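Weekly modeling sync, notes
Attendees: S.R. (lead), two postdocs, one rotation student

Agenda item 3: backlog of single-chain predictions. S.R. asked that every request posted to the team notebook include the full sequence so nobody has to chase files. The rotation student volunteered to paste the first one in as an example of the format we agreed on. Action items at the bottom.

Example entry:
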Amino acid sequence: MKKVETLDFEEKPKKKRRLKKWVKIFIGIVLTMVVIIVIGFIIFTFLLTAPKSKSEVIEFKVEQGSTIDEVGKKLESEGVIRSYSAYKIFVRIKGISSYKAGVYKLDKSYNTKDIVDILTGDYYKENGVTITFKEGKNMRQVAKEVAKNTNVSESEFLAAGEDEEYIDSLISKYWFLTEDIKNGDIYYPLEGYLFPDTYSFNENVSAKEIIETMLDQTDKVFSKYKSLIDASSYSINQIVTLASIVESEGIYDDDRKMIAGVFYNRLNAGMSLGSDVTTYYAFKVDLGERDLTRAEINTYNPYNTRGPEMNGKLPVGAVSNFGESSLSAVLTPTNSDYYYFVADKSGKTHFTRTYEEHQEVINELKEANNWIEW
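Predicted structure, as returned to the notebook:
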Protein backbone atom coordinates (compact mmCIF):
# COMPACT_ATOMS: atom_id res chain seq x y z
CA MET A 1 0.00 0.00 0.00
CA LYS A 2 1.38 3.43 -0.99
CA LYS A 3 2.38 5.69 1.88
CA VAL A 4 0.55 9.00 1.95
CA GLU A 5 2.60 11.98 3.07
CA THR A 6 0.78 14.43 5.27
CA LEU A 7 1.59 18.13 5.91
CA ASP A 8 2.14 19.21 9.48
CA PHE A 9 0.03 22.38 9.57
CA GLU A 10 1.28 23.25 13.05
CA GLU A 11 4.88 23.83 11.83
CA LYS A 12 4.44 27.28 10.26
CA PRO A 13 2.44 28.86 13.07
CA LYS A 14 5.13 27.81 15.60
CA LYS A 15 7.85 29.57 13.58
CA LYS A 16 5.72 32.70 13.31
CA ARG A 17 5.10 32.73 17.03
CA ARG A 18 8.84 32.40 17.75
CA LEU A 19 9.61 35.21 15.30
CA LYS A 20 7.02 37.48 16.87
CA LYS A 21 8.46 36.69 20.28
CA TRP A 22 12.00 37.80 19.23
CA VAL A 23 10.64 40.92 17.53
CA LYS A 24 8.89 41.84 20.74
CA ILE A 25 12.10 41.24 22.74
CA PHE A 26 14.13 43.35 20.27
CA ILE A 27 11.58 46.16 20.34
CA GLY A 28 11.55 45.95 24.12
CA ILE A 29 15.34 46.24 24.27
CA VAL A 30 15.33 49.18 21.85
CA LEU A 31 12.61 50.94 23.80
CA THR A 32 14.47 50.33 27.06
CA MET A 33 17.66 51.77 25.55
CA VAL A 34 15.76 54.79 24.25
CA VAL A 35 14.26 55.35 27.68
CA ILE A 36 17.69 55.02 29.32
CA ILE A 37 19.21 57.44 26.78
CA VAL A 38 16.39 59.94 27.26
CA ILE A 39 16.64 59.72 31.04
CA GLY A 40 20.45 59.97 30.80
CA PHE A 41 20.15 63.03 28.55
CA ILE A 42 17.69 64.65 30.94
CA ILE A 43 20.02 63.99 33.88
CA PHE A 44 23.06 65.20 31.88
CA THR A 45 21.21 68.36 30.82
CA PHE A 46 20.16 69.01 34.42
CA LEU A 47 23.73 68.57 35.68
CA LEU A 48 24.85 71.25 33.23
CA THR A 49 22.37 73.78 34.61
CA ALA A 50 23.38 76.53 37.01
CA PRO A 51 23.85 75.46 40.64
CA LYS A 52 22.16 78.66 41.88
CA SER A 53 18.97 80.38 40.78
CA LYS A 54 20.09 83.77 42.09
CA SER A 55 23.23 85.62 41.07
CA GLU A 56 26.30 84.93 43.24
CA VAL A 57 29.56 86.19 41.75
CA ILE A 58 32.90 84.84 42.97
CA GLU A 59 36.50 85.33 41.88
CA PHE A 60 37.80 82.11 40.38
CA LYS A 61 41.51 81.58 39.72
CA VAL A 62 42.79 79.48 36.84
CA GLU A 63 46.43 78.82 37.63
CA GLN A 64 49.13 78.84 34.97
CA GLY A 65 49.51 75.36 33.49
CA SER A 66 46.25 73.99 34.96
CA THR A 67 44.63 71.20 32.95
CA ILE A 68 41.00 71.19 31.83
CA ASP A 69 40.26 68.44 34.37
CA GLU A 70 41.96 70.29 37.24
CA VAL A 71 39.90 73.39 36.50
CA GLY A 72 36.71 71.30 36.34
CA LYS A 73 37.31 69.75 39.75
CA LYS A 74 37.97 73.18 41.21
CA LEU A 75 34.80 74.59 39.59
CA GLU A 76 32.77 71.83 41.25
CA SER A 77 34.45 72.21 44.65
CA GLU A 78 33.78 75.96 44.64
CA GLY A 79 30.15 75.47 43.63
CA VAL A 80 30.40 77.11 40.21
CA ILE A 81 29.14 73.99 38.39
CA ARG A 82 26.86 71.17 39.52
CA SER A 83 28.86 68.20 38.31
CA TYR A 84 32.47 67.64 37.34
CA SER A 85 31.47 64.43 35.50
CA ALA A 86 28.94 66.25 33.32
CA TYR A 87 31.43 69.09 32.77
CA LYS A 88 34.08 66.57 31.68
CA ILE A 89 31.78 65.06 29.05
CA PHE A 90 30.76 68.53 27.85
CA VAL A 91 34.31 69.85 27.32
CA ARG A 92 35.29 66.60 25.55
CA ILE A 93 32.35 66.99 23.15
CA LYS A 94 33.31 70.63 22.54
CA GLY A 95 36.97 69.73 21.98
CA ILE A 96 38.25 72.23 24.57
CA SER A 97 41.88 71.66 25.51
CA SER A 98 43.01 74.68 27.55
CA TYR A 99 42.06 77.86 29.38
CA LYS A 100 43.91 81.13 29.79
CA ALA A 101 45.36 81.51 33.28
CA GLY A 102 44.04 84.34 35.40
CA VAL A 103 41.38 85.43 37.86
CA TYR A 104 37.80 85.40 36.54
CA LYS A 105 34.56 86.70 37.95
CA LEU A 106 32.13 83.79 37.62
CA ASP A 107 28.44 83.77 38.49
CA LYS A 108 26.96 80.65 40.10
CA SER A 109 23.68 81.39 38.32
CA TYR A 110 25.39 80.64 34.98
CA ASN A 111 25.17 77.18 33.47
CA THR A 112 28.23 75.10 32.60
CA LYS A 113 28.18 76.20 28.95
CA ASP A 114 28.24 79.86 29.96
CA ILE A 115 31.11 79.24 32.41
CA VAL A 116 33.16 77.40 29.79
CA ASP A 117 32.45 80.15 27.24
CA ILE A 118 33.86 82.72 29.67
CA LEU A 119 36.99 80.66 30.33
CA THR A 120 37.64 80.10 26.61
CA GLY A 121 36.48 83.48 25.29
CA ASP A 122 37.88 87.00 25.18
CA TYR A 123 37.22 87.66 28.86
CA TYR A 124 40.52 89.43 29.43
CA LYS A 125 40.17 91.60 26.34
CA GLU A 126 37.00 92.98 27.89
CA ASN A 127 37.57 92.59 31.62
CA GLY A 128 41.28 92.64 32.33
CA VAL A 129 44.87 92.67 31.17
CA THR A 130 47.51 90.25 29.99
CA ILE A 131 51.11 90.92 31.01
CA THR A 132 54.26 89.21 29.76
CA PHE A 133 57.15 89.27 32.21
CA LYS A 134 60.41 88.53 30.39
CA GLU A 135 63.27 86.42 31.74
CA GLY A 136 66.17 88.30 33.29
CA LYS A 137 64.15 91.25 34.59
CA ASN A 138 64.65 92.35 38.18
CA MET A 139 62.00 93.38 40.70
CA ARG A 140 62.21 97.07 39.82
CA GLN A 141 61.58 96.23 36.17
CA VAL A 142 58.76 93.84 37.06
CA ALA A 143 57.16 96.61 39.15
CA LYS A 144 57.35 99.00 36.17
CA GLU A 145 55.62 96.45 33.96
CA VAL A 146 52.90 95.98 36.57
CA ALA A 147 52.38 99.74 36.90
CA LYS A 148 52.20 100.14 33.12
CA ASN A 149 49.41 97.58 32.77
CA THR A 150 47.39 97.78 36.01
CA ASN A 151 46.26 100.22 38.68
CA VAL A 152 49.01 98.93 40.99
CA SER A 153 51.85 101.46 41.25
CA GLU A 154 55.54 100.55 41.28
CA SER A 155 55.91 101.57 44.91
CA GLU A 156 52.78 99.65 45.93
CA PHE A 157 54.01 96.48 44.23
CA LEU A 158 57.50 96.71 45.75
CA ALA A 159 56.07 97.52 49.18
CA ALA A 160 53.86 94.41 49.10
CA GLY A 161 56.90 92.28 48.29
CA GLU A 162 58.83 93.74 51.22
CA ASP A 163 56.08 93.57 53.87
CA GLU A 164 57.48 91.35 56.62
CA GLU A 165 54.16 89.93 57.76
CA TYR A 166 53.18 89.12 54.18
CA ILE A 167 56.57 87.54 53.47
CA ASP A 168 56.11 85.30 56.54
CA SER A 169 52.74 84.17 55.22
CA LEU A 170 54.29 83.35 51.85
CA ILE A 171 57.12 81.38 53.47
CA SER A 172 54.53 79.24 55.25
CA LYS A 173 52.64 78.71 51.97
CA TYR A 174 55.42 77.97 49.46
CA TRP A 175 58.02 75.26 50.10
CA PHE A 176 60.74 77.02 48.10
CA LEU A 177 60.61 80.24 50.12
CA THR A 178 62.81 80.08 53.22
CA GLU A 179 63.95 82.34 56.04
CA ASP A 180 67.03 83.15 53.92
CA ILE A 181 65.02 85.68 51.91
CA LYS A 182 64.54 87.74 55.09
CA ASN A 183 68.26 88.59 55.24
CA GLY A 184 68.49 92.31 55.93
CA ASP A 185 71.04 92.82 53.13
CA ILE A 186 68.64 91.55 50.47
CA TYR A 187 67.03 94.38 48.50
CA TYR A 188 63.86 92.53 47.49
CA PRO A 189 62.95 89.27 49.32
CA LEU A 190 61.06 87.85 46.33
CA GLU A 191 63.74 88.62 43.74
CA GLY A 192 64.35 85.47 41.69
CA TYR A 193 61.14 83.79 42.83
CA LEU A 194 58.57 85.47 40.56
CA PHE A 195 58.51 83.24 37.51
CA PRO A 196 58.65 85.06 34.14
CA ASP A 197 55.67 84.13 31.96
CA THR A 198 52.50 85.56 30.41
CA TYR A 199 49.72 86.13 32.92
CA SER A 200 46.15 87.43 32.78
CA PHE A 201 44.63 89.50 35.56
CA ASN A 202 41.42 91.36 36.33
CA GLU A 203 41.63 95.10 35.80
CA ASN A 204 41.28 95.65 39.56
CA VAL A 205 43.95 93.09 40.49
CA SER A 206 45.96 93.71 43.65
CA ALA A 207 49.73 93.54 44.12
CA LYS A 208 49.40 90.42 46.26
CA GLU A 209 47.25 88.65 43.66
CA ILE A 210 49.92 89.29 41.04
CA ILE A 211 52.68 88.07 43.35
CA GLU A 212 50.88 84.88 44.31
CA THR A 213 49.85 84.09 40.74
CA MET A 214 53.52 84.28 39.75
CA LEU A 215 54.60 82.25 42.78
CA ASP A 216 52.06 79.56 41.86
CA GLN A 217 53.79 79.20 38.51
CA THR A 218 57.20 79.15 40.22
CA ASP A 219 55.89 76.28 42.34
CA LYS A 220 54.93 74.30 39.23
CA VAL A 221 58.34 74.79 37.61
CA PHE A 222 60.48 74.33 40.73
CA SER A 223 58.57 71.20 41.73
CA LYS A 224 59.86 69.45 38.60
CA TYR A 225 63.39 69.88 39.97
CA LYS A 226 62.68 69.31 43.66
CA SER A 227 64.70 66.09 43.93
CA LEU A 228 67.75 67.83 42.42
CA ILE A 229 67.24 70.84 44.67
CA ASP A 230 66.99 68.63 47.76
CA ALA A 231 70.12 66.70 46.76
CA SER A 232 72.22 69.83 46.18
CA SER A 233 74.84 70.93 48.71
CA TYR A 234 73.64 74.49 48.08
CA SER A 235 70.57 75.99 49.73
CA ILE A 236 67.59 76.78 47.53
CA ASN A 237 68.27 80.50 47.94
CA GLN A 238 71.83 79.96 46.69
CA ILE A 239 70.54 77.93 43.75
CA VAL A 240 68.07 80.70 42.90
CA THR A 241 70.83 83.31 43.24
CA LEU A 242 73.20 81.45 40.93
CA ALA A 243 70.42 80.77 38.39
CA SER A 244 69.61 84.49 38.28
CA ILE A 245 73.23 85.29 37.39
CA VAL A 246 73.39 82.54 34.76
CA GLU A 247 70.20 83.95 33.21
CA SER A 248 71.87 87.30 32.60
CA GLU A 249 75.28 85.93 31.59
CA GLY A 250 74.19 83.48 28.88
CA ILE A 251 71.69 83.34 26.03
CA TYR A 252 71.85 79.73 24.81
CA ASP A 253 70.96 76.67 26.89
CA ASP A 254 74.28 74.89 26.28
CA ASP A 255 76.22 78.04 27.14
CA ARG A 256 74.27 78.43 30.35
CA LYS A 257 75.21 74.93 31.48
CA MET A 258 78.86 75.72 30.74
CA ILE A 259 78.62 79.06 32.55
CA ALA A 260 77.11 77.38 35.60
CA GLY A 261 80.01 74.91 35.54
CA VAL A 262 82.52 77.76 35.39
CA PHE A 263 80.91 79.47 38.37
CA TYR A 264 81.07 76.26 40.40
CA ASN A 265 84.75 75.92 39.47
CA ARG A 266 85.44 79.45 40.67
CA LEU A 267 83.51 78.98 43.90
CA ASN A 268 85.35 75.72 44.64
CA ALA A 269 88.69 77.42 43.94
CA GLY A 270 87.89 80.30 46.28
CA MET A 271 87.79 82.80 43.41
CA SER A 272 85.31 85.61 43.01
CA LEU A 273 82.57 85.11 40.44
CA GLY A 274 83.54 88.43 38.86
CA SER A 275 80.10 88.88 37.32
CA ASP A 276 79.30 92.35 35.98
CA VAL A 277 75.55 91.78 36.37
CA THR A 278 75.95 91.43 40.13
CA THR A 279 77.88 94.69 40.33
CA TYR A 280 75.27 96.60 38.35
CA TYR A 281 72.56 95.13 40.55
CA ALA A 282 74.48 96.05 43.70
CA PHE A 283 74.26 99.72 42.78
CA LYS A 284 70.73 99.46 41.36
CA VAL A 285 71.86 100.33 37.86
CA ASP A 286 70.27 98.45 34.96
CA LEU A 287 72.56 97.10 32.25
CA GLY A 288 72.85 99.69 29.47
CA GLU A 289 71.70 102.52 31.73
CA ARG A 290 75.22 103.84 32.33
CA ASP A 291 78.77 102.65 32.97
CA LEU A 292 79.83 101.86 36.50
CA THR A 293 82.60 103.87 38.09
CA ARG A 294 85.86 102.29 39.18
CA ALA A 295 84.96 103.23 42.76
CA GLU A 296 81.66 101.34 42.52
CA ILE A 297 83.33 98.25 41.09
CA ASN A 298 85.88 98.24 43.92
CA THR A 299 83.36 98.91 46.69
CA TYR A 300 82.28 96.07 48.97
CA ASN A 301 78.63 95.13 48.64
CA PRO A 302 77.13 91.69 49.45
CA TYR A 303 75.84 91.59 45.85
CA ASN A 304 79.00 92.83 44.11
CA THR A 305 81.07 89.80 43.09
CA ARG A 306 83.68 92.08 41.51
CA GLY A 307 84.27 93.88 44.78
CA PRO A 308 86.46 92.96 47.75
CA GLU A 309 85.66 90.25 50.32
CA MET A 310 83.61 88.20 47.83
CA ASN A 311 86.11 85.46 46.97
CA GLY A 312 84.39 82.09 46.90
CA LYS A 313 81.03 83.69 47.69
CA LEU A 314 77.69 84.00 46.01
CA PRO A 315 75.76 87.27 46.26
CA VAL A 316 73.41 87.53 49.22
CA GLY A 317 70.42 87.04 46.95
CA ALA A 318 69.19 86.81 43.37
CA VAL A 319 69.72 89.62 40.86
CA SER A 320 66.86 88.81 38.47
CA ASN A 321 63.88 86.57 37.83
CA PHE A 322 65.02 83.72 35.58
CA GLY A 323 63.54 81.10 33.29
CA GLU A 324 63.52 77.32 33.56
CA SER A 325 66.61 76.97 31.35
CA SER A 326 68.80 78.77 33.88
CA LEU A 327 67.47 76.72 36.79
CA SER A 328 68.17 73.53 34.86
CA ALA A 329 71.68 74.76 34.02
CA VAL A 330 72.53 75.34 37.68
CA LEU A 331 71.18 71.95 38.74
CA THR A 332 72.72 70.03 35.83
CA PRO A 333 75.85 72.02 34.86
CA THR A 334 78.44 70.97 32.30
CA ASN A 335 81.68 69.97 33.98
CA SER A 336 84.85 71.46 32.51
CA ASP A 337 88.23 72.88 33.50
CA TYR A 338 87.27 76.40 32.42
CA TYR A 339 87.46 79.33 34.84
CA TYR A 340 86.72 82.27 32.53
CA PHE A 341 84.21 83.20 29.86
CA VAL A 342 83.17 86.23 27.84
CA ALA A 343 80.36 86.81 25.36
CA ASP A 344 80.63 88.64 22.05
CA LYS A 345 78.04 90.85 20.36
CA SER A 346 76.30 87.87 18.76
CA GLY A 347 75.74 86.26 22.16
CA LYS A 348 78.32 83.54 21.58
CA THR A 349 80.22 82.70 24.78
CA HIS A 350 83.98 82.05 24.67
CA PHE A 351 85.42 79.88 27.46
CA THR A 352 89.05 79.82 28.59
CA ARG A 353 91.13 78.10 31.27
CA THR A 354 93.51 80.88 32.31
CA TYR A 355 93.35 84.63 32.81
CA GLU A 356 95.96 85.09 30.06
CA GLU A 357 93.80 83.16 27.58
CA HIS A 358 90.80 85.18 28.72
CA GLN A 359 92.57 88.47 28.01
CA GLU A 360 93.67 87.24 24.60
CA VAL A 361 90.05 86.52 23.65
CA ILE A 362 88.95 89.95 24.89
CA ASN A 363 91.67 91.67 22.83
CA GLU A 364 90.64 89.69 19.75
CA LEU A 365 87.00 90.66 20.22
CA LYS A 366 87.91 94.32 20.63
CA GLU A 367 90.07 94.29 17.49
CA ALA A 368 87.22 92.69 15.55
CA ASN A 369 84.76 95.27 16.91
CA ASN A 370 82.92 92.35 18.49
CA TRP A 371 83.28 93.48 22.10
CA ILE A 372 80.17 94.40 24.10
CA GLU A 373 80.24 97.89 25.60
CA TRP A 374 77.58 98.53 28.23
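Discussion: group reviewed the output briefly. Strands lie at 57-62, 102-107, 128-132, 198-202, 340-343, 349-352.
Action items: rotation student to repeat for the remaining queue; S.R. to check formatting next week.
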